[in-house]
Structure formats: C-alpha cells, structure tokens
Amino acid sequence: MALHQVTDDFIAYTKEIGARLELDETTTFLVIAATLLDLKAARLLPAGEVHDEEDLALLEVRDLLFARLLQYRAFKHVALMFAELEAAALRSYPRAVSLEDRYSDLLPEVMLGVDAGKFAEIAAAAFTPRPVPTVGIDHIHAPKVSVPEQAHRIIALLEQRGIGEWATFAELVAECTDGLQIVGRFLALLELFRAKAVAFEQPEPLGVLQVSWTGDRPTSEHLATADAEE
C-alpha cells in the first residue's frame, strides 16, 4: 500500500471527524498527520545524514508509525477479505422446504469394512453369553502368618551367613510368596531387634537396610508374647 494513499486517507479522515473530537484527540491526530506528511516529503528528497537530536527523535516516531502502518495494512486486507466473503454469502440461500418423499426413506449403504468371515466372528462374539460377574473372597480367608515362625526363618538365613555378616532386607524376603508374609517377616525382624538378636545398619535415610545376626537367640516365650500382641 502506497504511503501517499495512507497519508491522504488519514488527512481526509481527520478533517471529517475534527468537529467531533476533543482538543487532546485532535492534537494527537494532527501529530500523526504531520509525521505522515514529513515521511511523504522525505520520500521525495535524497537521503542524508541526521545530526539533530530532534530529527533522531522524529526517526523513532517514524519507526513506530511504520509499525502502525503495517498493522493498518493488515487490518485493511482482512477487511477486504471479509467483504468478499460477505458478498459471496449474499448469493447463497438456505433450503426452506422439507425433504422430498422419494428421499425420506432412503438409507446410506452400510460400509462395514470387513468380509463375511470377519462379520461372522463379530456376530458370534456379540451373541456369546458372558460369564456372570463374581466378587472374589479369597483375600478374606488368607492364611495366618506366624511371627515366631518368621523370626526363626530369619535367624536361619542369617546363621548361614555367619555372625556379623550383613544381608539386605530384600534378600531376607526374597522367598516370600505374598505381601502378608513380607509384613510378618518385617514384624519378626523388629522383635528380633528388640531382643538384640540382630543389628541394623542403614547408611542414609530411606537407604538399603542391612541386617546381621549378633549370635543371640530370642527365647520362645518372648516370640510367643510378640505373636500374641500382633
């Protein structure tokens, strides 16, 4: 879009709305119009060096105005596009009648995307009776885990390693088959620690727990009391 066209349009618009604007608004429009005229005149003159600070400030205003002009050109281009779309839409009219009787009972062709064999498999799967849903109760009758038995098993595992030899907790529960046994073995480990039959070592918080046998064996009465408490 040519600069002279933008300048002429802006000055014409300023003259048109000049009577309806306040003094401050009119001043702003006049400053922009003056800048546009200055830019238009600069296009007609050869380029030269600028030494005046006021001229430098004017160049900054010019750069800002150029950015505004690019926005103006973009909005004007979009407005023209909308005008073309609106003009094309005015030539379109909605259908104001109902569907003809000869088309009302028509149905689109069924497109399954499968052959007869695959369709038979789908039908067989759809008509196959589904099993009746049941609620499992196996967890209610879980076998009881004895803490003393788990304690004796821990002592047996540590005794194989020897006094003062370390084993991780993961190694001590590696043979457990369910979570309840792991819990029972952990409780047994606490009872053995309380009876000073084992020693713990954990270099850092939440680190690997090391367990070793001290050589002592807890009494059956102590383990039986612990089992009764649990």
TrEMBL record:
Keyword RNA-binding in record: no
Keyword Secreted recorded: no
- What keywords appear on the UniProt entry? Chromosome partition
Domain of life from the UniProt record: Bacteria
Under Gene3D superfamilies, the record lists: 6.10.250.2410
A single GO BP annotation from the record? chromosome segregation
Pfam families named in the record? SMC_ScpA
Q: Do you know which InterPro entries this protein is assigned to?
A: ScpA
Protein's name in the database: Segregation and condensation protein A
Source species of the chain: Mycolicibacterium fortuitum
Lineage per the UniProt record:
Bacteria, Bacillati, Actinomycetota, Actinomycetes, Mycobacteriales
Question: Gene encoding this polypeptide?
Answer: scpA_1
